[in-house]
TrEMBL record:
Transmembrane segments: none annotated. It is an enzyme of class 2 (transferase). One of its GO terms (biological process) is L-serine biosynthetic process. Its EC number is 2.6.1.52. This is phosphoserine transaminase. It comes from the Bacteria. Residues 143-330 form the Aminotransferase class V domain. PANTHER family: ALANINE--GLYOXYLATE AMINOTRANSFERASE, AMINOTRANSFERASE CLASS V. Keywords: Amino-acid biosynthesis, Aminotransferase, Cytoplasm, Pyridoxal phosphate, Pyridoxine biosynthesis, Serine biosynthesis, Transferase. Belongs to the class-V pyridoxal-phosphate-dependent aminotransferase family. SerC subfamily. It comes from Nanchangia anserum. Its cofactor is pyridoxal 5'-phosphate.
Length: 373
């Protein structure tokens, strides 16, 4: 491993954080955060409640949420939503698409719930896609819009011929706010704000259909024990007041609100998707043209616009590439630890400029030429 490799200054990107979560945060947003008068104040008073109200309205506008769907939020990050799904939205049996570490973790959470049957899994190897089909008796279908561990993008349409009251629960953590989506086809579209929304972690947001709200209310009236922190009806009741059940990270809310304004100024969801697609396309095109690299996701139609995973040939040590980039200030292009492949994984969220992704490919050329065995 060559840890002394120095990249020419004129090759380096302006923004050098390419993490897939948390992602880079805009410097002007951080400057505004430092000047905020709401930090350290009560989340049950008007200044913070107004902020939460602005965020809920901003998400509704950006993602074009239809009438009747409500936006709830709470503490714990999107990981908490896997438990909330099991506690509050799945009656007895769920079917899951499993095609990476995060979709597997969602199914594992269902398996651990003592009141539910084991998740029915449709499985693909990392880099592929497998979505559940309609199964009699299944009352919820679960998968990720974007599998963050591999860079696979899935559709969000409910399974054809599913039971009419079955819910579709979509983990959108790494893609919400980056691509257009038909919310009317989804019962629960949930995410955290540390990806496309360029904030910090620790909160979850869920866009809930009338059917999902009715299911949560139904199960809250049952004999099922639902801890308060996981109770979706309590989260929704508080969200309608523009607050959370317990104290949120106000700094995260401030960053999220600022990013929502920036995304609107960028041109809204279509402009966000175009920007992310351009950035990831630069990487995919580079990998296809390079003799020692390739896109990890072989099917181009499944490649994520926000998480670009690149596989290297055996004579290129990805660990050495990552170390050389980090030594030059280019951070967080590590592959997901559970995949264990010879690859890098690059966040191409809206905050990342396509020009910086172009610069990253030049840096990769420079490094690979000097370390390839």
């Amino acid at each position: 491993m060559n840890t002394a490799l120095s990249l020419p200054a004129d090759l380096l990107p302006a923004v050098r954080d390419f993490g897939c979560g948390p992602t880079a945060i805009r410097k002007d947003a951080l400057a505004k955060l430092g000047a905020s008068s709401r930090l350290g104040s009560s989340h049950r008073q008007a200044p913070v409640k107004d902020l939460v109200g602005d965020i809920r309205a901003g998400i509704r506008d950006l993602l074009e949420v239809p009438e009747g769907w409500e936006i709830a939020l709470g503490n714990g990050g999107a990981t908490a939503m896997w438990a909330i799904n099991a506690a509050c939205l799945i009656r007895s049996r769920a079917a899951c698409g499993v095609y990476g570490s995060f979709t597997a973790k969602c199914a594992d959470e269902i398996d651990r719930a003592p009141h539910l049957g084991a998740a029915i899994r449709t499985v693909a190897d990392p880099g592929g896609l497998a979505l559940p089909t309609a199964i009699p008796g299944v009352d919820a279908y679960c998968w990720a819009h974007n599998e963050t561990s591999t860079g696979v993008r899935a559709g969000t349409e409910r399974p054809a011929n599913a039971d009419p009251d079955a819910l579709t629960l979509i983990d959108a953590t790494s893609i919400a706010g980056a691509v257009a989506v038909d919310i009317s086809a989804i019962d629960c579209y949930y995410f955290s704000p540390q990806k496309a929304f360029a904030a910090d972690g620790g909160l979850w947001f869920a866009i809930l259909s009338p059917a999902a709200i009715a299911r949560a209310e139904e199960l809250s009236r049952s004999e099922r024990w639902i801890p308060s922190i996981l109770d979706l009806t309590q989260a929704l009741a508080n969200s309608r007041k523009n607050q959370t059940l317990n104290t949120p990270a106000i700094a995260t809310l401030e960053l999220l609100a600022d990013q929502l304004d920036w995304l609107a100024q960028l041109g809204g969801i279509d402009a966000c998707e175009a920007r992310c697609t351009r950035s990831s396309g630069i990487l995919y095109d580079w990998a296809q043209a390079h003799p020692l690299a390739r896109p990890f996701v072989a099917d181009a139609s499944l490649r994520s616009p926000v998480v670009a995973t690149i596989e290297f040939a055996d004579n290129v040590d990805a660990t050495a590439v990552i170390a050389a980039l980090r030594d030059n200030g280019i951070r967080d292009v590590n592959p997901y630890r559970g995949v264990g492949a010879n690859q890098i994984r690059v966040g191409c969220f809206p905050v990342i400029s396509p020009d910086d992704v172009e610069a990253l490919t030049a840096c990769l050329d420079y490094v690979i030429e000097r370390i390839a065995a």
